[in-house]
Write a structure and sequence with these properties.
Chain lengths: 289, 314
């Protein structure tokens, strides 16, 4: 039982980390990014390449991959998504357009990775030794990933609540039009937040690659989980992200160890629907419409 | 106007009668191509029937297609063919009603997310059931259905879909959906039961997709979940409907026909980079033709001197 809960918490921490970037991208920049998981897998491949080809530890790899992802996502927002933002007459239209554009992007990125790496599963052995943690044996790489996840989450939370830029970002999330009235450069803030979301998912990708096998086509699953967590927790809400991520991880681990590992996705969706039927705006979301 | 409608109806009827003779050509390759064309035409038109007026992007075409195909794989040899089709359609309708009732009451995004995962969810459930309960993963389909039979069934379904779409567009339901697509709040204030209208149309559209899957199933002799639930179909159908223009009943055909031919060519020539090319084509359509070919025609028809007006506007 302790083992299942511990596994669930670690899984949940990972989901929370994966979803944090998306909640920024969707909550602030209003881009429903369906190619999100592909960026995670791309970062995982980058980390794999750095580790196996250059013997660079994933923790050092983070310092290389994350800034690169930030720049790349900034460029994607500026080049690909800004035309859609300008074109859209309202928020709903932007949502539809961004869903379509990023869905197309999914296939471009996935196809490129398939062409580069093939369809095989990849993994590498990093910190793969057991350690004792609250009386249970867990893999060191998972524990390390959880530690970094907590650090990243704390840093993000503090940045959003304690700094001027973070306050501006939260203002855009609440109301982009009103934010302009108080002299916030909304397009700039949106672009930077989107890029920050991309950087976070790259960090998640590097961390995930240390303990999970992945293939060029496994991005969709991560996109799905991130979407579920974001909507369940309430769009744009960090605390909601954490709670929903943990709930998802726990339910998955419990079902996998006590019912059947083949039913985890069904549990995800059941939980998702159950939350939405009771609270349509998510656990911590405000009803907007 | 009625004379024009009658004329168009006669023309459509003549086209269908003419198309019914394709299997008589005796060329297996053309027949296979014609089946692909009809398959995607029906799927894209069915997709557009719901997603066009409501603007809710459904990514679950494969889920319904797969349910249809897999129903045939399970029941094809046990029951007579019409009954199998009926059961497949019923299953698709029930699934669509459940999905619709649980997500369409909420905002459109939840619907998109749910349909995004639906294919994977159903596939996992089918695999789980096959592994744990029935203990067969992968089934052989031996039914007495020839390629020509598949073609004729699809052609009949195409005719039915267009007739149905035309009837719905003229009915109160179709009008309600257009109002919802323009502004859902206004629709609610007009006294339209928006949830009912959306769920009803989603169910109709999904039933058609399920039937396509069921009809197509005998084409494969061996079916397993990863074949029946191939997410590429959702994507291709979405591209086709968007290229054609989903806001018109006849729009998706304009995308389905050229793109089916193009995909046929591309997947044969560039099997490794097919996905990338597909993604790029899709992006081009989203950016260049947001209202599809149908929208382009409308623009040209609305302004015969389109170039001059544009210059004035600029």
């Amino acid at each position: 039982m302790t083992n299942a809960i511990l596994t669930g918490l670690m899984l949940g921490g990972m989901y929370a980390l994966i979803a944090m970037g998306l909640t920024l991208q969707y909550g602030v920049a209003r881009i429903m990014n369906l190619s999100y998981g592909e960026f995670l897998i791309a970062a995982a491949f980058a980390s794999h390449w750095l580790f196996t080809g250059w013997a660079i530890s994933p923790f050092v790899g983070l310092a290389l991959v994350v800034p690169l992802a930030f720049v790349l996502n900034f460029a994607i927002y500026k080049l690909l998504l800004t035309p859609l933002v300008r074109r859209a007459p309202n928020r709903d239209a932007l949502e539809v357009d961004s869903i379509l554009a990023t869905f197309g992007l999914t296939f471009v990125i996935q196809g490129s990775m398939l062409a580069l790496f093939g369809g095989a599963y990849y993994s590498y052995s990093f910190l793969a030794f057991p350690v004792q943690f609250v009386g249970e044996t867990v893999a060191a790489n998972r524990l390390a990933a959880l530690g970094i996840t907590i650090l990243l989450g704390l840093a993000l939370y503090l940045a959003l609540t304690r700094t001027r830029a973070g306050t501006a970002v939260r203002a855009v999330a609440v109301d982009p039009f009103a934010a302009q009235l108080v002299a916030i450069n909304v397009p700039q803030a949106s672009a930077l937040t989107f890029a920050l979301g991309g950087a976070l998912v790259a960090a998640a990708g590097v961390l995930v690659s240390t303990f999970l096998t992945f293939s060029a086509s496994s991005g969709v699953v991560f996109t799905m989980k991130a979407l579920i967590v974001v909507v369940m927790g309430g769009v744009g809400n960090m605390l909601g992200c954490l709670v929903a991520g943990l709930a998802l991880g726990l339910s998955e681990a419990l079902v996998a160890s006590y019912v059947d590992p083949g039913l985890t996705l069904a549990v995800n969706f059941a939980l998702f629907l159950a939350v939405l039927l009771v609270k349509p705006a998510g656990l911590f979301g405000r009803a907007t419409r | 106007m009625t004379a024009r409608t009658a004329g168009l109806g006669a023309l459509a009827l003549a086209a269908f009668v003419l198309l019914a003779f394709v299997p008589r050509l005796g060329n297996a390759y053309y027949l296979a191509l014609a089946i692909s064309l009809l398959q995607y035409t029906v799927l894209a038109t069915a997709w557009g029937m719901f997603s066009g007026p409501t603007r809710y992007v459904s990514l679950a075409t494969t889920a319904f297609f797969g349910v249809g195909a897999y129903t045939v794989a399970v029941l094809g040899e046990i029951l007579p063919w019409p009954l199998v089709l009926l059961i497949a359609a019923a299953l698709g309708a029930i699934l669509a009603a459940i999905v619709g009732l649980s997500t369409l009451r909420l905002s459109g995004v939840y619907f998109v997310i749910f349909t995004f995962g639906l294919t994977e969810l159903i596939r996992q459930l089918v695999v789980w059931f096959e592994v744990n309960k029935s203990r067969v993963l992968g089934r052989y389909v031996f039914v007495d259905i020839t390629q020509a039979d598949i073609y004729w069934q699809l052609l009949a379904l195409t005719a039915a879909v267009f007739l149905l779409g035309w009837l719905i567009a003229r009915s109160r339901l179709g009008f309600a959906l257009r109002v919802i697509g323009e502004d859902e709040t206004v629709a609610k204030h007009c006294g339209i039961n928006t949830t009912f209208a959306k769920v009803a149309l989603f169910t109709i559209s999904a039933t058609v997709m399920t039937l396509v899957g069921a009809i197509m199933a005998p084409r494969w002799t061996y079916i397993e979940p990863s074949i029946a639930f191939n997410s590429m179909i959702s994507f291709q159908v979405l591209i086709m409907a968007l290229l054609g223009g989903a806001h018109r009943l006849w729009g998706p055909v304009l995308g389905a026909v050229p793109l089916t031919l193009l995909f046929e060519l591309l997947s044969a020539r560039f099997p490794n980079t097919f996905t990338i090319i597909l993604g790029c084509i899709f992006l081009l359509i989203v950016y260049m033709l947001p209202r599809g070919v149908a929208g382009l025609f409308e623009k040209l028809a609305a302004a015969p001197g389109g170039k001059t007006t544009q210059r004035v506007a600029a």
